[in-house]
């Protein structure tokens, strides 16, 4: 990889970790809530719905979804590790049994 690509990958990972945190979700919620009074006082239903959909949901849920995906990924990794350990134990047992059978002949 080029230095430029390596830099972009590192920067992308750093930003993803920052945005995909509950701290970022709380910060985005506060930022979104700053504009809530203006949306409510407008009295316009479209403005209020737009605030909910475009401001609050997009800002806050993005980070929360990223956190949830990280948690799911960790759980999946743990399940995979457990399954691989089980398979490895089974393989060791089968090899031992085959060796025992071959030695008996």
Q: Could you explain how this protein is built, in words?
A:
There is one protein chain. With 105 residues, this protein is an all-alpha fold. The chain is 92% helix and 0% strand. It starts with a helix and ends with a helix.
Could you provide a short overview of the structure?
The protein is 92% helix and 0% strand.
Features of the shown structure:
single chain, 105 residues, mainly alpha, 0% strand
Secondary structure blueprint with pairings:
Blueprint (H helix, E strand, L loop, with lengths): L2 H17 L2 H13 L1 H7 L2 H60 L1
Helix pairs in contact: 2-4, 3-4
Form type: elongated
Radius of gyration, in angstroms, nearest whole number: 26 Å
Major sheet summary line: none
Spans of at least 5 consecutive residues whose pLDDT stays below 50 are none
The beta-strand count equals: 0
Helix content: over 70%
Task: Please state roughly what percent of the residues sit in beta strands, choosing from under 5%, 5-15%, 15-25%, 25-35%, 35-45% or over 45%.
Answer: under 5%
């Amino acid at each position: 990889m080029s230095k430029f690509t390596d830099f972009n990958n590192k920067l992308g990972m750093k930003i993803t970790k920052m945005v995909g945190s509950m701290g970022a979700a709380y910060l985005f919620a506060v930022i979104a809530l700053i504009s809530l009074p203006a949306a409510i006082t407008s009295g316009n239903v479209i403005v209020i719905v737009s605030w909910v959909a475009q401001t609050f949901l997009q800002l806050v849920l993005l980070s929360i979804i990223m956190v949830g995906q990280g948690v799911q990924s960790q759980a999946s990794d743990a399940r995979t590790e457990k399954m691989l350990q089980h398979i490895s134990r089974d393989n060791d047992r089968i090899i031992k049994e085959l060796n025992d059978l071959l030695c008996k002949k």
